[in-house]
């Protein structure tokens, strides 16, 4: 079989394009993680809809299930400032095993807003740096969350790593009419690799500290210290980008207050043992 010079050149260009596509860099507004954020945000005028479905399962000595949905509209206010609005619904049900108790359920409907202010762009600066703010008001809960977002890319942006430091205060309304304050300090680490232009695979590691009252206070120390790890896979398609992830609680939880029964089989008793998240997103 004979090949002309033009035919060989065409085949060479096609092969090079195919090979380069296997390591194509990520979109500038792509979010390959589910429990943490990168500093990749929408540019000015870009708009996106996202729908989250979250399932949490398992407490020590109890049957526990929690379902959450989050519907988000986000837009790029400027190239370095992104705003979002959320409608959130949370329903949980728990039944103690020993002694056997009656099922108890709770639900909360809330709205929240989100601002992400990017200070350093990872594609032009040595690292990406951004700040995140999210207030929420619900039927039984109020909360305010702040995050420090850091990002570093490698291998022509095909490998993205991110670190988030989260601080959240929550005020829950109990049946007696009082607002009880709880808070959390979390360190979330993730890495995601673009296998192809449309598929990425990553892992997310979370270390979550729970507090009674405010994180910053006199002699304040956490009452729980949990660790989670799991994979995340993303498909960037049209019309939807689909992201699916799961995490399991690692059996290395701490018991800072040495409370009997707070840690069972190495896991925090009152924190879920398993959680899974599905996110659908589309630009418009």
What does this structure look like?
- It is a single chain.
- The protein has 284 residues and is mostly beta strands.
- The chain has a single domain (26-283), classed as Porin.
- It is 6% helix and 60% strand.
- The chain contains 1 helix and 14 strands.
- It has one helix at 5-21, and strands spanning 47-59, 62-78, 81-96, 104-120, 128-138, 141-154, 159-173, 179-194, 199-212, 224-236, 241-249, 263-264, 267-268, 274-283.
- The strands form 2 sheets. It has a 12-stranded antiparallel β-barrel. Strands 12-13 form a two-stranded antiparallel sheet.
- Strand 1 and strand 2 (62-78) form a beta hairpin.
- The longest helix has 17 residues, at 5-21.
- The relative contact order is 0.16.
Structure described in brief:
The protein is mainly beta and 284 residues long. It has one helix at 5-21, and strands spanning 47-59, 62-78, 81-96, 104-120, 128-138, 141-154, 159-173, 179-194, 199-212, 224-236, 241-249, 263-264, 267-268, 274-283. It has a single domain, classed as Beta Barrel (Porin).
End-to-end gap: 49 Å
Unreliable parts: 1-26
Alpha carbon gyration radius: 22 Å
The CATH topology assignment is Porin
According to CATH, what is the class?
Answer: Mainly Beta
Q: List the total number of helices.
A: 1
Order of SSEs: HEEEEEEEEEEEEEE
CATH level 4 superfamily: monomeric porin ompg
Label the structural class: mainly beta
Whole-number average pLDDT? 89
Strand tally: 14
Number of domains: 1
What's the CATH architecture? Beta Barrel
Global geometry? globular
Q: What helical percentage do the residues reach?
A: under 10%
Strand coverage percent: over 45%
Strand order of the largest sheet: 1-2-3-4-5-6-7-8-9-10-11-14
Biggest sheet overview: 12 strands, antiparallel, barrel
